[in-house]
Amino acid sequence: MNTNQRTADFYTLIRERQSIRQYDPSVSISEDELKEIIGEAILAPSSSNLQPWRFVVVTDPDVKQKLFPIAYNQKQVLDAAATLILLGDTEAYHNADKIYSLAVKNGMPQEVKDSYVPRLLEMYPNMDRETARGVALIDGGLVAMQFMLAAKAHGYDTVPMGGFSAEQLVEAFDIPSHYVPVMLISVGKADGAGFPKTRLSVDEVTSWNSISGLQD
Question: How many domains does the chain have?
Answer without folding.
Answer: 1
